[in-house]
Specification:
By secondary structure, the chain is an alpha/beta fold. The protein contains eleven helices and eight strands. The protein has an eight-stranded parallel beta barrel with strand order 1-2-3-4-5-6-7-8, surrounded by seven helices. Helix 6 links the parallel strand 5 and strand 6. It is globular and about 75 Å long. It starts with a strand and ends with a helix. The mean pLDDT is about 100. Bound molecules: erythose-4-phosphate. The site of erythose-4-phosphate (E4P) has 11 residues, from helix 7.
Length: about 220
């Protein structure tokens, strides 16, 4: 399973990249706003800065929701760097835009997916990735993992090449569940990725090894 980090924070992206396990980055307008990035020029510069840190696959979201606007904005975003994946919202004109970019060989990520039907439409339109938001479904007492299972089944039935990018991942258990189901990618915060490291028996086991080593070498 590929690991993407879901942030526009350059320090966190650098930290994840330095771990050597990072496959890509997802951003959204809220995450860009959180970093105080505003204005077209600054937004473009920030995406370029992210591309300069990672090896590939930086999702950059269009703001337009009409076909012409999404095409114009998506083309500008794609021109920033070959690592850019144009992120398109799940709306009617978004389906047309996914088809347009697919024909042009520009990679896309269809965002705000909350049902299997939406994922199926995006796959038929040639999306490179679909982003089902598991955490936001859990937030409304709907099991986000059931959606990942349903999309996996549908995509496997018809060998769709569209990849399932499990988004809105909030904690390490989400990551494990996504891996068990067979999501192609998960995107989450650095904290969730780092929590995968943790186990109390690892901590106590290491402390014991170091104590025994120190004792044997102090003689
Ligand atoms: C996906 O690409 C989104 O940026 C993201 O995963 C949303 O996560 P949230 O529900 O934690 O805001």
């Amino acid at each position: 399973m590929q690991f993407f980090i879901d942030t526009a924070n350059l320090d966190q992206i650098k930290e994840a990249q330095a771990l050597g396990i990072l496959d890509g980055v997802t951003t959204n307008p809220s995450l860009m706003a959180k970093e105080g990035i505003a204005g077209e020029e600054n937004v473009m510069k920030h995406y370029k800065a992210i591309c300069d840190i990672v090896e590939d696959k930086v999702s950059a979201e269009v703001i337009a929701t009409d076909y012409e606007g999404m095409i114009a904005e998506g083309e500008k975003l794609a021109a920033i760097d070959p690592k850019i994946v144009v992120k398109i919202p799940m709306v009617k004109d978004g389906i047309k835009a996914l088809k347009y970019f697919s024909k042009k060989g520009i990679r896309t990520n269809c965002t705000l997916i909350f049902s299997a039907g939406q994922a199926l439409l995006a796959a038929k339109a040639g999306a490179t990735y679909v982003s089902p938001f598991v955490g936001r479904l859990d937030d409304i007492s709907s099991d986000g993992m059931i959606l990942i299972e349903d999309i996996r089944l549908i995509f496997d039935n018809y060998q769709y090449e569209t990849q399932i990018l499990a988004a809105s991942v909030r904690h390490p258990l989400h990551i494990i569940q996504c891996a068990k189901i067979g999501a192609d990618v998960m995107t989450g915060p650095l904290s969730a990725i780092l929590q995968l490291l943790k186990h109390p028996l690892t901590d106590s086991g290491l402390a014991q090894f170091l104590a025994d080593h120190a004792k044997a070498n102090s003689k």
